[in-house]
Amino acid sequence: MSVKVSWYDEENTIIVQEFPEIWTWDEFYDAVKRTVELENQVSHPLYVIGTQPRNGQTPKGNVISQYNVAIRMHEDHMRYYLIATDNYLTTIFGNIFLKTTAMRDKVRMVNKFGDALNFIAQDKKKLEQAASA
């Protein structure tokens, strides 16, 4: 089963990648390619949310290395890649580990899809305040 990629909102500011429980790195990179194609349709700031099911299994291999490569493939106007894991411990340890990587400025792990939307709303507000200052 492949990763579903689609716009979440009518303004085309949020792209959602819906991961199945079992996926491969080839499917991951195909999803990144399709996400970048959507990113190329707009020039304004946008966000990507990757949803991981609670019982989802990450493929074997170096996860950080794979994500480092993938993050560099995204367009500059992608503000954040948010990983919604639905697993509290994974979120905590993931965010601690991410702070030690080159992805620390672009990737965040959140516990639920709604948390990702809240993070985005707060970031959009910061952008608006900075633009009006």
Q: What would CATH call the class?
A: Alpha Beta
In angstroms, what is the radius of gyration?
14 Å
Give the tally of β-strands. 5
- Taking the alpha carbons of the first and last residues, their distance comes to 47 Å
Overall structural class, as computed from helix and strand content, comes to: alpha/beta
3D architecture notes:
With 133 residues, this protein is an alpha/beta fold. It has one domain (4-132): 3-Layer(aba) Sandwich (Phosphatidylinositol Transfer Protein Sec14p), CATH 3.40.525. Helix content is 43%, strand content 20%. It has helices at residues 25-39, 63-73, 88-98, 113-132; strands at 4-7, 14-18, 46-51, 78-84, 107-110. Strands 1-2-3-4-5 form a 5-stranded mixed beta sheet. The longest helix has 20 residues, at 113-132. It is globular and about 45 Å long.
List keywords for this structure.
133 residues; alpha/beta; Phosphatidylinositol Transfer Protein Sec14p; 5 strands; 20% strand; globular
